[in-house]
Amino acid sequence: MKASLVTIEPNGHSCSDCAVREFAVCSSLDAVELRELEHLGRRVHFTAGQIVFSEEDITTSFYNVLDGVMRLYKLLSDGRRQIVGFALPGDFLGMNISGRHNFSADAIGAVRVCQFAKTPFGRFIEDRPHLLRRINELAIRELSQARDHMVLLGRRSADEKVAAFLLGWRERLLSLGMASDTVPLPMSRQDIADYLGLTIETVSRTFTKLERLGVIEIIQGGIGLLDTARAEALAAA
Amino acid sequence: MKASLVTIEPNGHSCSDCAVREFAVCSSLDAVELRELEHLGRRVHFTAGQIVFSEEDITTSFYNVLDGVMRLYKLLSDGRRQIVGFALPGDFLGMNISGRHNFSADAIGAVRVCQFAKTPFGRFIEDRPHLLRRINELAIRELSQARDHMVLLGRRSADEKVAAFLLGWRERLLSLGMASDTVPLPMSRQDIADYLGLTIETVSRTFTKLERLGVIEIIQGGIGLLDTARAEALAAA
DNA sequence: CGCCAAAATTGATCTGTGTCAACTGTCTTC
DNA sequence: GAAGACAGTTGACACAGATCAATTTTGGCG
Question: Among B34, B86, B157, B215, whose CB has the most other CB atoms within 10 angstroms?
Fold first, then answer.
């Protein structure tokens, strides 16, 4: 939640050797289209805590996460917060129907995004149904994840929530080649609590409990997963 | 959860005078396309409790709800249930990426749907980007609702959950012209509990409490909304 | 390095909601 | 219209997780 002084990458960039090329929206585009897209997007840097966009803001851009992790959250008027997701490289943000964002997004640590102004990007999609199909695919995948998360929030115990979160987070990082049995957790305990519908104390206690049980090992900036099978059993998957 | 004996409407039907024509996926189609679509869909009836599809089933169809209310839910292995939504006329079901449904759906009372076989409907979409855009729009709207529901499940008290549910349900029915200050509740208390991440007892007690407070009046098959402002305050909207 | 602020952990206690159980009301069927 | 089954309500009590309050650990910075 710092003042908003973002950095725009000065020189050109090329989509063709972009790290997320293969699994982001862009995966649906051919070399020629990619070249065109290059002119529409600009790379923008955010530092830890910077807000990328806020709920209820008029949507002006789409964002393609290139690097880093973002917190996606909604606030109640009295300050209660629910984190509705974490965005990782390859995630596409900014879709909506009301013309306004329906959640806020800020950076956990340094984040690099590819930002597209809404109107030109909208035009670009216009006559490229395969891109639209790709965007739809991403939306449907998110919807499926959202429903899984509803089950977690509504019907799981604190132990199950934490175990399921650690396994799910690890799985996501694995698919990006960013984890092994040591799982980095760039977000704070408070973030985890707000994602799981718990308090920070309960999250902390549950971590300690899982460590006592020999399921995980708490390390700097993350955990070591010692007993995956046991963790899966606890998650009631 | 009855045996599966669905009824298929015998004679032809016409999309042009369909009740959901204006707000379902079909709203994106012109008269000619509508005529074509007519041949792809068949109307199917379900009676109370009949399962329309189950989680993990291979997707074979898309469904357009014409009439009635459906329960959309996910089960945990030990029987805990989370209702992820209620489908009403105009809702479009069957989108997924894995080729399998990611939740189950059954009928609350009598339901009529327009069913489209996956492959031909997929082909129909193929060269109709405006239909794809419409489907995307519906997916994004659902995603937004899903996120709102996450906030409710993760961060709201029982009172807030129930109040927010009643107001939200009323709002949806209003937009379909199916409610006024008396709000029909076709689903059971257990369904409401499983939707809100509560127990049936807590839901029942909260209804009674709201009635004592003069906010609602409990009637057969629904409630009367007596004090909307108060309900909104309780929902912490 | 030493100081400060923030994050995380731990303990003690409280409470909202779940659990268990009894009861009531309503609908169905013969 | 009696009997059974099921849905809903109500009460008493239990407990998972919240709250309140220290304390410890970590990280940033002069």
Answer: B215
